[in-house]
Amino acid sequence: MKEIISILEKNGFVFALLLVGCIIYVSYFISKKFTNNHIPGAAIAISFGLVLAYFGGEKGFASVPGFSGLAFLGGTMMRDFAIVSTAMGAKLAEIKKTGFIGLLCLLIGTVVAFFVGGSIGYALGYTDAKSFATIGGGACTFIVGPVTGGAVGASSDVIAISIAIGVIKSIVVSISTPFFAKKLGLDNPQTAMIFGGLVGSTSGVSAGLAATDPKLVPYGALTATFHTAMGCLLCPSILYFLVQLFI
Amino acid sequence: MKIYGVAILAGCFLVGHILGDLLGRLLHMNGNLGGVGFAMLLLILLHDYFDKKNWHQAETENGILFWSTMYIPVVVAMSASQNVKAALSGGWVAMLAGVFATVACFAIIPVIDRMAKKANNK
Fold first, then answer.
1. Has residue A114 got a pLDDT over 90?
2. CA closest to B102 among chain A residues
3. Nearest Cα residue to A25 out of B57, B27, B97, B72
4. Eight-state DSSP code of residue A96
5. Gap from A1 CA to chain B (nearest CA, Å)
6. Residue A109: pLDDT band by 50, 70, 90 thresholds?
7. Which of these, A178, A193, A240, B107, could form a disulfide with A133 (CB 3.0-4.6 Å)?
8. Minimal Cα–Cα distance from B17 to chain A, Å?
9. pLDDT band at residue A71, thresholds of 50, 70 and 90?
10. pLDDT at residue A26, as a whole number
């Protein structure tokens, strides 16, 4: 048994490919047989991944001995590489059509998430400006939270909470997007770009759109990746100063 | 050859990251600002340029398309390696802030969507 685990560990990336292949096969099978394709296979597979992650540790299921390759296959480098490749399916004309509104969405999405997140933190006892800004940043994405916290000098437990908020947001977005897609009118490139810009969380948006309609992924992902940039820019600066004025 | 496509993709990816890093430095922020977004824009512009020049190399395109079909598997691996336990143990603040931030963003989507459609119809 030990030998097998060490072989899996050494060839972690290859094992991760096998594992993910199996997860996707089972998920698409469940989707077809039991839900009549109403719940997309990709949505089941992503939820399945999250459930597995719960039984792992700091790196989710990749913390379990033998499964470390999952963290590489699903790591930032591979994720970003795969996201960029989806740009092949995007049409320049569609992006130009939404250009300005997309920018506006980035701004609105960041400000709304920041103040909604920060206010909830405030209501639950994190009443200083530094914590407000850090928790608000976390409500943008789990990268903006720690970046803001580091910049304004928030305590490490608040930074940890801000990361948790970002991860929860990405989980909620991943799972709920396919269910709300119809209500949100999420069936065309333009709405996908608005969706990505407002919601932000790149992992959530890309997983949610993948589960809804893979054709929309590049549009949503494009604006979503700029959302983190916008958050890193605004949260520790203008928004933090605004908060300081009131608290 | 497929590797040409993969190489183009890799080039866009790296140039995008360098641009994102430069922007980060320029604004005195640690880290990469929108590197992936720049890389995507670059690939979209290149694709558009090749389209206009009528350069169609199916094999080269397949090299990039392979990676875009690997996208869902990568996302599944990503969700399996999230620190879900810590996120859930972040307590009520994390739970409520995460859920309400999402709900608030979802709620504005139809409003802006309507604005955008009106603007386009003008």
1. yes
2. A169
3. B72
4. H
5. 23
6. very high
7. A240
8. 10
9. very high
10. 96
Cα separation of A136 and B120, whole Å? Answer: 33
ipTM over 0.90: no
Of A246, A245, A224, A243, nearest to A118 (Cα)?
A243
How far apart CA A113 and CA A234 sit, in angstroms, is 12
Which residue in A105, A111, A115, A162 sits closest to A134, CA to CA?
Answer: A162
Best residue of B29, B72, B99 to probe chain A, by most A CBs closer than 10 Å: B72
Distance from CA of A107 to the nearest CA of B (A): 12
**Alpha-carbon torsion, ordered A122, A131, A173, A190, to 10 deg:** 100
CB contact under 8 A, B44 and A87: yes
Q: Do B105 and A165 touch (CB under 8 A)?
A: no
Check if the beta carbon of residue A194 is closer than 8 Å to that of residue A216: no
Among the partner residues B16, B20, B116, nearest to A101 by beta-carbon distance: B116
Residue B2 exposure: Cα atoms within 13 Å on the Cβ side: 6
Decide: A202 and A225 in contact? Cβ < 8 Å: yes
**SS3 of residue A60 by DSSP:** strand
Min distance B108 CA to chain A CA atoms (Å): 8
Residue A43 corresponds to which tokens in the numbers above?
Answer: 């949505």
**Residues of chain A neighbouring B31 (CB-CB closer than 8 A):** 143, 147, 232
- B28 Rama class: left (phi>0) / alpha (psi -120 to 50) / beta: left
Q: How many angstroms separate the CA atoms of A213 and A211, rounded?
A: 6
The pLDDT value recorded for residue B87 is 74
Phi, psi (rounded to 5 degrees) for A60: 60, -140
What pLDDT, on a 0 to 100 scale, did the predictor assign at position A205? 92
Whole-angstrom Cα distance, residue A197 to residue A222?
8
**Integer Cα distance of B38 and B40 in angstroms:** 5
Segment A42-56 shows an average pLDDT of 88
Name the CA radius of gyration of chain A, rounded. 19
DSSP state of A95: H
In whole angstroms, give the CA distance from residue A148 to residue A165. Answer: 14
- A121 and B97 in contact by Cβ < 8 A? yes
